[in-house]
Amino acid sequence: MLGKDMTPLLDLAESVGWPVLPDVASGLRFMRHDLIINHLDQVLLGPAPDADCVLWFGGPVVSKRLGQWIATARTLARVSPAFGRQNPHHVGGLQIQAEPIGVAKALQGRLFPSHAQHPRHWQAMERTVVDCLDHIDVSDTLDEVTIPLGLARWHDRQATLYLGNSMPIRDMDMFAPACDATCRVVVNRGASGIDGLLASAAGYAHGSGLPLTIMLGDLSTLHDLNSLALVAKSPVAIRVVVINNDGGGIFHFLPIAEQTPAFESLFATPHGLSFEHAAHLFGLRYHQPQTLDRFVDALGAGGSSLIEVRSNRAMNVERHQRLKKIVTESLGRPNPA
């Protein structure tokens, strides 16, 4: 639904009183609206309401927890212009091959409003998660948790936000706050997840004529390093934000991290490299900010650039787990205000 006016979807939700549970790639994830549950992946750590009826607009979802919740739906109708199941949980239901916006318009006035308390429950859980995340210490830490805060704080309403796979797209989903500006979000999930992201981002920027910020990991950057030449030649500004945790950080969240002595060499695959010389090789401005404020400054510096953020994989896992524990415990007593 890239570039579509989402107003009909929100109008439909308002007419029936249903919450909007946005995927991070939908463009709705970062929008402020009473019925949008922005921190859905975190909210689903708590006791979510039963899925009586789900209207699923668009393609596959990134959040594993959202996919699992959808799989519990008593009634499911999925609307997508693409043919195919795209349903990893193999949930039965009605599948409509059509443009979601057109279907949302057609459903206006044809669904009965809900009198359940579900929206209030979702909203209370959302407020609880926001309260938890508002206490994240950003004074001297720039890492996978605070980078989404910086991107949301700076975001240029004219720019495209291109989210890389593995942890970057998941961290944006978990930690980015809602923005006052609308946000054009692009993803390329791909076959193996990390191939060709810089090339496809440069192609999108060229085709759209809009400036672009891409957030991706170090291994994704290494796999497509020569495409920095396309970034340097782009007629519009492309900011490449590389999160360099020296390997595949996502594997630290999987059981395999505890089960094999060869984890580092076969899964984490550390490389020990910096991207400073790569930026200079292709004539790109290079920044390596150490704080959130300096990161926001680098985003606003103008022109195409490579912004490298160094982090530690082990510390990142510990920080995620600590925040998850805080949110989970707090959702046992959601904020009703």
UniProtKB/TrEMBL annotation:
Pfam families reported for this sequence: TPP_enzyme_M_2
Keywords attached to this Swiss-Prot or TrEMBL record, sorted alphabetically, are: Menaquinone biosynthesis
Specify the domain of life of the species encoding this protein.
Answer: Bacteria
Q: Does Metal-binding appear among the keywords?
A: no
User: Which residues are in the Menaquinone biosynthesis protein MenD middle domain?
Assistant: 6-163
GO BP term, example = menaquinone biosynthetic process
- Which residue spans traverse the membrane? none
The name under which this protein is listed is Middle domain of thiamine pyrophosphate
What taxonomic classification does the UniProt entry list for its organism?
Bacteria, Pseudomonadati, Pseudomonadota, Gammaproteobacteria, Candidatus Kentrum
